[in-house]
From TrEMBL:
It comes from Candidatus Woesebacteria bacterium GW2011_GWB1_43_14. The keyword Secreted does not apply. The chain crosses the membrane at residues 53-75, 102-121, 127-144, 156-174, 180-199, 220-241, 261-280, 292-314, 326-345. Keywords: Membrane, Transmembrane, Transmembrane helix. It comes from the Bacteria. This is EamA domain-containing protein.
Amino acid sequence: MFLKRWSEFQLKHPRWLLFLSALLIAAYMVNDGNIMQNLLPQATEHPSYEITKVTYSCTYLTVGGILGLITYLLLSQTPLGKIVDTDYKKGNISSISKQAQAYAATSGVISAFATLIVLWGNSEYDPSAVTVLTTATVIFVLPIESLFRGLDYKQIMWPVILAGIGAVVVMLPGAELKTLQAGGIILAIITLLLIKNLLSGFEEVISGDGATLSDATSFSFWRFFWLAFAGAIISVGVVVITGQYEEYKFAVKSMVTNIPYWVVLTMIFVFMGMGWKQVAKKPKFKLSITEVVMISSFSGFVSAVYTAVVNWVWPETFPEAPLSLGHWIVRFIGIGILVLGMYWATKIKQQRKENEQESERENKNV
C-alpha cells in the first residue's frame, strides 16, 4: 500500500521529489566537507608522511568508491531500493541491458573525474561554496547547444555572465584571506564552476538516457560501479605522478580503519538523493534534463544553511565558511545572482523548445 501511494506521489509531484533529493545532496556535500577538512587529516596524522590535499582527494575517491559500492549493493536489497524507484525489482541489477550498461559506464567514468574535482574543492573551501558552484551545471547546457545546435551565442551570453558574477560573489565572504585573494577565487571558478560543471553537463544528459532504459536503482548501481573502478585507476595514476604513492597507501588504510562509518553515511545520502534525481529524468515524469538540473541546484542554498548551522553548533568546523551575519548575507546574495542566471538560462532553453515545437506544427500544416 505504501509503495503504491509513494509511486503515485512521485508521478504527481516529481519536483517535490527533486527537492527531497536536493536536501540529501546538500547533506552529503556538507558531510564530505567535514571528512576532507577534519576527519581524514586527523585520521592520517603521521610524522613520516606529509600528505597533500590532492592525495586526500584521491584517497577518498578510492575508499568512497569501494565502500559506496558495497553500500549501494546492500541498500538495493532492502525496501529502500524500491523507495528510490518503484519500478525496481530484485534481480534487475544483474539483468541490465547492454545499452544501459554502456550509458552507465560512460556516465560513471565522467563522474569519477568530476568527483575528484569536488573532493579537492571540499578540502579547500567550505561546503556551501563548493555545492553552489558545482550545481550550476545548467548554465553549460546552452553554450553546448550554441556550439552543436546552432543556438545564437548572444542569447546565452548574459545568463552565463550573470551566473559568473554570482559565483564570484559567493566566493568573496571567506573567513581566511586566501579565499578573498583573486587567485583563490579564479581557481575555484575554473575548477568547480567551469571544468566540473562542463563534465557534469555531459554526464547529466548521458545518465538521463541510461535511466530511461532501466530503473534508477539498477542504473545508479552500475554507474557507481564504473565511477569506483575509474576513480581507483585515476587516483593511483595521480599519486604516482605526484610522488605520493606511499602516502596514499597509508591514507587509504587509515581511512578504512578509522572513519568508514562517516563514508557510509555519505553513501546512504548519495544512494537516496542521486537515485531520486535519476528517477526524475524518466520520460513519464515529463521533466527535461534542464529542469531536473535546475531544481536540483536548490541543494546549493540548502548546503549554505547546513554549513551555517554546523558552524554555529560546532564552531570552526569549516574555517573557510563565513563567520559574520554580513558575510552570510553577501553569500546568499551571490547564490541569488547565480540562481537567477541559471533560471534565465532555463527560460531560454524552454523558449527554444517551444519555438521548435511551433515550427514543427506549422510544417505539418503546410
